Amino acid sequence: MLHTCSPIPNALSHSVDISQPAPHFPSPSFPSILETLSSSPSPAPSISAPSISAPSHPTPNPSPIPLALNTHSMTTRSKHGIFKPKVFHTTTNDYNETEPPTYQLASKYPKWCTAMDEEYSALQRQQTWSLVSPPIGKNIVGCKWVFKLKRNSNFSISRYKARLVAKGFHQQHGIDFQETFSPVVKPPTVRLILALAVTYDWPLQQLDVRNAFLHGVLQEEVYMSQPPGYVAPNLPQHVCKLHKSIYGLKQAPRA
């Protein structure tokens, strides 16, 4: 039930006319009051105040308060007349130039569809999983597509990259993962290699390994739902039993 507030009662039940002077009632002296009380036991008659009406002319508005001038010594953009207008985006984003947040948006653009096809083909070539019936009592990990734009040094688009990522937060310790530690290279080692390359004039090359995690064999039984947009039409209820590690799993870096 909606709450309705009752109106606040007006403190002045009678209107007041400030244009007419208030009548003057002479106050009786103290002895006369005592005589009246002793001679007459009846209560004194009440005196009603005259009705006074409100003025009809409007009340003038108060004069605006002048704004204080900024006399601080700090230099700001507003002091130099520099103002950045607010930009309101009313058009839809062009996801050929930006990264789509969801699969539903990416599936409408051919370039992102090609990137997903390449990722899915790599997963199939590496025999990352096999479709099985959902096992009873086993944890099923979800998955999603993550999209990334690879750019050149001049910020032009180099490659559209789509990656299938497992939702590792669905995993349960002791059931579908054990250890998550992975050996990593230390920054002093990288600096030492760079120093040697500069000293001996060695050539340096940057290498981007595609699907680096797909070469690690899993020791645990991990079941994942089928990727969005790539559900087998003849086996829509089946799940993926992972044989190789995949991005997003807690044990993927160690594997």
UniProtKB/TrEMBL annotation:
Residues 27-70 are annotated as: Disordered. Signal peptide: none annotated. InterPro entries: DNA/RNA_pol_sf, RVT_2. Residues 38-56 have a biased composition (Low complexity). Residues 127-254 form the Reverse transcriptase Ty1/copia-type domain. Transmembrane segments: none annotated. SUPFAM superfamilies: DNA/RNA polymerases. This is Reverse transcriptase Ty1/copia-type domain-containing protein. It comes from Fagus sylvatica (Beechnut). The lineage of its organism: Eukaryota, Viridiplantae, Streptophyta, Embryophyta, Tracheophyta.
